[in-house]
Amino acid sequence: MAQYYIIDFDSTFTQVEALDELARISLKDRPDRELIYKKIEDLTNASMEGKLSFTDSLEQRVKLLEANREHLKQLVRHLRKKVSVSFSRNSVFFKNHQDEVLIVSGGFKEFIIPVVGDYHIKKENIYANTFIFDVHDKITGYDRENPLSQEGGKVKLLRELDLQGDIFGIGDGYSDFQLKESGIIKKFFAFTENIERQSVVEKADHITPTFDEFLYLNRLPRAISYPKNRIKCLIVGNVDKEAIAQIQKEGYNIRRRDLIEDAYLQEAGVLLCTDDKQPTPEQLDNAPRLKVIGCFGRVASRKLAESACDNGVIIFDDPKYNPRNIDFIPKRVISFMNEGKTHTSCNFPDLQPPRVNNAHRLIHIHKNVPGILAKINEVFADHDINIVGEFLVTNQQIGYVITDVNTGYDTEVLELLKAIPNTIKFRLLY
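== phosphoserine phosphatase ==
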């Protein structure tokens, strides 16, 4: 049976509400602009939370805009920079599912088509409102016959389309939930990467903090193998809020504690800590999910660095109070988690592999003993898997291998790679 993916635009495909942003462009010279901005934002939220009919909200917002075609051009340039991060990194999914992805929005085609068109989404699969202009290109209204301009418009439209197959809805607002309420779609996923509306979340089949999570739950191809919102990042000590913000922007599940508690460390994939709140070697022996430590200060001892290495945990550190470490440490942690780069680590051999498109990246960390690379390649050869690129670096304790392979292979391959003797850690990166 065919599957269709109905995706909202405002605060879902993009990080912002487009009409709110258009108001900031068109009204920037008005002395009372802040009051009008607030009115428009309140109208948007009231509609998205189901407290005001969409028809009333849309009509009042468009009247307040005082916008024209030139303002719309500026808005499009702005929105192209505001595509939600998890949608942006999964552009290949949209390219490969052009017939199944539909953008259904109460927004307007004039700004939606140019933005989503960059992601291979077919123009004929974009359903939205259209503005009406006067002879001076000023917006004077919109097509009121379009069902998407009316209350319950998404439900009316989907009934007209009569799609035959399983339909999944992704959005942040009440109008998206109405599709589920009507029985038209199979499941509704509340998208919370940009905003979380409690009235919508509590009625959703699933909460999806990122588009990666949606793809993961539905076993669809995705840019990263495991959604970052499922990876816990433990933050211990007085870590600068700007550094934390960078990690939050990546989508990790943040947990903050005053001390390193075993129960929290055992669940963490990432640890950010200050130099006075470092884990002990014994704690690292019991942290099976931990992949990387970002230490704001120097590592306490060589024993700790070696213990981390023995457990396949990379450490990035920097001198205490070094002004650069607010930015330096998060970037190193993110670079390792996203691409496997180990450059500037204090305990791993140095490797900075280039990113390879249309390939899967596998990371294998093992004890530095002879013959491991041969065993890895034997697994690939036995399963007719083509290696696009392979990198091996070592230190006295470990070998660190990154292999980029062509897409398409049996998951049994991953289990075989994990089972190679002397393997410390293995993961599919993307």
